[in-house]
Structure formats: structure tokens, C-alpha cells
Amino acid sequence: MTKKVKVQKYSTYWDRNRKSGGYLFRKDVANVFVRFCRFILLFGLCFLILIPLFNKISVSFMTKEDLFNPIVISVPLHFTGENYQIAAEIMKYKVGLRNSIIVSLSIAIIQTAMCTLVGYGFARFKFPLKKMWFAFVLGMIIIPPQAFSSSLYLHFNMWDFLGIVKLIKGQGINLRGSALPYYMMSFTCCGLKNGLYIYLVRQFFRNIPVDLEEAAYVDGCGMVKTFVRIMLPEAKPIITSCFLFSLVWQWTDGFYSKLFLGNTTLISTELSRLVDSLGVYIARIQGGGANAQVGVSTQYSNAILATGTLMIVFPILVVYLFAQRAFVESISSTGIKM
Amino acid sequence: MKKQKNKLAGLQKRKAIAGYLFISPFILGFLLFMLKPMFQSLYMSFCNVTLGAGSVTMDWIGIKNYFDAFRTDPDYMRMLGETFLQMILYSLGIIVFSFFVALILNQEFKGRALVRAVFFLPVIISSGIILGLEENNQLMSQIATTVDASVSNINITAGLQEILRTTGVGVKAYEWVFEIIENIYDIAIASGIQIIIFLSGLQTISSSMYEAADIEGCTKWESLWKITFPMISSIFLVNWIYTVVDYSMRSDNDVMDKIQTVLTVQLNYGLSSAMAWAYFVVVTAFIGITSFFISKGVYYYD
Predict the structure, then answer these.
(1) What pTM, to 2 d.p., does this model score?
(2) Which one of A230, A308, B208, B220 is separated from B260 by 20 to 30 angstroms, measured CA to CA?
(3) Which residue of A lies nearest to B43 if distances are taken between CA atoms?
């Protein structure tokens, strides 16, 4: 015999509210209030983060007159694309963009591949002196290359290893000014923020169950094969995020680019000397010869700078729009813990 | 039995070799490119370095460079102190801010993915050289002041500051708080990664804990302190270290700037290295001490 539980139905919201002693209504009001506050807060913070970008966009479309017009604040009176033309010409945008894409992509691929290997080695193998080597990795995260840039300059001016090169050639090799040493450094995990990538990859691999590997070993899979066939497919998220980070950070990097790739036109290095180049450019246009110093107003040079920054950021923004999930969610999937 | 043991040792040996093969790129790179500059820089900080044509001469002068940095140089000591205070202040601000934002972003609401994307955007955009450029872009700050001026009557912090000043509550403390609030933009753009790390920590807490607490009559506020806080305390440690390292090594802070100036303008390699190493020791010591105290408070669930 089944008992039918009689559910009393209250027809209206207010009926139910009365029945619950006003609890329902209070709860709903509190909910709406919380949502409202959250909206205001998040909207404000998002606005705060985005406003410099919006400002740059509006400034980049202004003509010179608009910049000096006190009435014009954020919406330009005369729309113009002239700033973009000038910035592109000064920054050698076409060449720079092509070089930047080649360098960033290749460096990112190399760094990601090597850091994945090293990270896996640290996560899954026991070997003597492992703690020492890992301490060096942590050291590389904590000590940035800028801290000892003085001796890096010297080191790469007269690069040598244990005096071998000196024995053969009489003096060290000058490695600065060519792209080769930077590729070598990327191959050996000494590039920009590589310590961080190694650490992230290691954390990720440590969270994968050991059983998976052991099963592969028992079935007669070798170490390399296990890594390629079993572990790599598991690590897709972290590899994607490492690749994206190294791509983006390489794109905007100034330090290593200046140190090694001084002869290559990259948009990041071009941007950092944009204001100086602008002065030279304007002097040349006005035909004043080399020593005619033409003062460029701060407003104008800053407008060009803003335009240049936008032009650099734009490709990254496109990448970010498409790979936003990979950026944000891959970090959370590493489950960083001490 | 004995044979088996031997075999195990063989496997371990093979694994050790494989491990070394896997990390060999790093070892190679570290020995070839990093080790020498690091030690050379340390050595140079005790030397008088003179650059000739294609040669460097280093004369050992003991701790004179350090003495110069701290006693002779007019700015270094002051900059070090200021940067150190700022580092503490901002790191605290960033941690609190990112924890708070992560708590909000962990809730369910419409457009959450969009808001997350916006908060993470600065990590991508304000990196590398762009960060340095934004610092001295006067046009942008001019626009900001214009906007500020038009809303100057409703400046909340100034009003509050006025009230607190007249009542005279802990002057120094609230000044610091206001400094953080007024520089909320800097904090917001510096906390993208921390927010994501906190979020990932929050998502690992199983919802059954909150349900149990809810049934037992726990309010949201209580469960924040009794469940959320202890469960992600290890994340606080990670974030704290990351924040301090990130903040202290930013190229736009005073000390790093000073080091670069001494190097590239004064061409004083020895002094620059000494300054860098002194700063680095201070920061590392700070990280060591604070993380020791934080790790004492960390709660491990499993």
C-alpha cells in the first residue's frame, strides 16, 4: 500500500511567503541586493582595467588639433587614421611584424618543447642531486636576468666555455647581435621566464597518477615511448598554456630582444624607441638636416606612442580572444600546490 | 631473491639515467650560459671593473662597492627602504584584492567568463616593455586628471580621509590603506595570475563541505573563515611568494631602475652588481622569513 503524501500547493508567491513567515521574501531581497552590489563592483573594476585601452583607442584616432583642443576629451572631433600610418612607418611595422611573428613563434615552440621535457624529468624520475638542480630552477625564477645583466653583457661579448674556444681561436666569440645565442638559450631552457614554465609543467605532471606510467612500463613500453604516447597527450592543457605564455611574453619582451636581437627589427624594440624615432622622422620630413632639433610636443608624441602600443597589442588581443579559455583555464588545471 | 634486488637496482639506475637525459638541456644551459654570469656578477660586486678595448680588468677591492652603495650613493639606501615598504604594502594589497575577486568570480552569474577574461587581460597586455611605457605616458595621465577633475566633488577617499584625520585614528595605518585604494589600478593589473591561482584553489574544495556546514546552521561568513580559508591556505603561500618575486623584480621599480642607470649611464659595473646583489639578498631574506611564518599557518587537509 502506498501512502500518498499530500503536498499542499500555495498558489501565489505571497501565500508561500506568508507561510514561511516572511523568510522567502527576505531571502529574495537579499539575493537581489547581493547581485546588484556584485554587478556594480565587477563593472567598476572591469571598467578600471579596460579604460586605459579605451583611452588609447580614442587618442589614436585624433588629429593634432583634437589633441590640443581642451573640449575634446575622449571622442575625437575629426576622425583620422593618420596616426596609424605614421606609427607604422616609424616602427617599420611590416618588417617588424613579420620578424616578431617568426621569432616569437619559433622561440615559443622551442621553449615549450624543452621545458616540457625538463619538467617531466623533474616530476617523474629519481636521480642523485635532483634537489640541487631543482633549486637552480627555483633560483632562475627568483633571480631575474636583469639582476646580473652587467655580466651577461660581458659574458656574451666574449663567450667561452672553460677556455676551450680561447685555445682554438685565441679569444672568445662575440655572441651579441645575432639571433643564434638566443635560440641556443631557448633550447637549453634559459630564456625568458623558462624557470616558471619548468615549474608549472612539473606541478602538472606530479598530479597525474603514477599507475598510468607503471602500467605502460609493465606492458613493455620504454621510457621515451611512455613519455610520448602516454604522458604527452595528458599534458595538452599545460603545454598549450606554456606555449601561449611564452608566445605573448616573448612578443612584448624588451630585455632579451635588446641583448641579442639588436640587429633584427622587432616591433617590441621599435616601440621602446618610438619617441626618439618620431623626433628624427619629423626633422627629416621638415627637411631640417641632421642637426636641426625640432621639438615634438609631448601630446603628439604620446598620441603616436599610444597608437604604436595599440598596434603591438592588437595581434596579442586577437590571440587572446581565440585562446582565452586555454589561457585562463590551463593555469587552474595545473593545480599549483606547495 | 638476490637477483630480483639486482634487477630493481638496475631499473632504478636506468630511471636515474633517463631522468638526467630529460633534464640535460637545462643542466647544459645552466652551466653554459647562467652559472658564469651569476658568479661573475657576484665577483664583480667586490671589484673595480674597468672596460678596455675588448678586455675587462677586475681589481679586487673588497666590500668598497657595497660601502659606496649604502653610504656614498645618496639615493640607494632611501630607494631600497621605500621599495621594500612598497613591496610589502602592494603584495598585501594584491593578495587581499585577488582573494576577494576570486571569491566573487567563483560564484555563478551571467557573464562570468567575460569578467574572468577581463581580469586576466592585463597579464597579457601590460607585460614587458608596455608596462614601462605606460608609466611615463603623460597624455594618458592628463586624460585621467581631466576625468578626475570633473568628478572631484564625489571623491570618496578624500572625504573619508578627512573624517579619519579629524578624528585622529591610527594615522600611518589608514594612510597606507588609502595609498592602496588610490592605486587600485596598479593592483588590479598586477593580480591577474594570482586571481586564477586562487580560483583554481577554490574549485578544489568539495561542495559537500559547504552543504554540511549549511545544514549545521553555519552562515556564509562563518564558512568563509572555517572552510574556505583553511582549505586554500597553501595557495596563499604560493601566491605570496609569486607576488613578492613578481613585484620586486618588475623593471619599473626604483631600485631596478637605479641598478640599470648605474650600469648603462655611469658604466660602473662593480657598483651596479653590488646594488643588485644587496637588493636581491634583502628580497630573498624577506621571502624566506615570511614564507616560513605563513607555512606554519598552512593547513593541509590530506
Answers:
(1) 0.79
(2) A308
(3) A151
In B, which residues are within 8 Å of A55 by CB distance? Answer: 140, 143-144
A187: CATH: 1.10.3720.10
User: What pLDDT, on a 0 to 100 scale, did the predictor assign at position B98?
Assistant: 92
User: Do the Cβ atoms of B139 and A306 come within 8 Å?
Assistant: yes
The tens digit of pLDDT for each residue in A282-307 reads: 777 766 555 545 556 777 777 888 88
ipTM (interface pTM): 0.76
Cα separation, A104 vs A321, in Å, equals 18
Instruction: Give the pLDDT score at A167.
Output: 57
Contacts with B104 from chain A: Cβ below 8 Å:
38, 41-42
| Residue with the larger pLDDT of the pair A38 and B270 | A38
Cα separation, A17 vs A180, in Å, equals: 74
Q: Residue ranges of chain B with pLDDT lower than 50?
A: 1-3
Closest CA–CA distance from residue A144 to any residue of chain B (Å)? 7
Phi, psi (deg, nearest 5) at residue B55: -145, 155
Residue A75: exposed, middle, or buried by beta-carbon count in 10 A (0-12, 13-18, 19+)?
exposed
CB contact under 8 A, B56 and A154: yes
> What contacts A175, CB < 8 A, 6 or more positions away?
A156, A157, A159, A181, A260
Q: How many domains does chain A have?
A: 1
Is B41's CB within 8 Å of A122's CB?
Answer: no
Residue A59 falls inside a structural domain? no
Contact at CB, A38 and B104, closer than 8 angstroms: yes
Please judge whether B25 and A128 are an interchain contact, meaning their C-beta atoms are less than 8 angstroms apart. Answer: no
Among 3.20.20.70, 1.10.3210.10, 3.90.1150.10, 1.10.3720.10, name the CATH number for the domain at B79-297: 1.10.3720.10
pLDDT in tens, B39-49: 878 888 888 87
Q: What is the pLDDT of residue A37?
A: 92
Q: How many CB pairs under 8 A join A and B?
A: 252
In angstroms, rounded to a whole number, what is the distance separating the alpha carbons of residues B113 and B121? Answer: 12
Residue in chain A closest to B141 (alpha carbons) equals A52
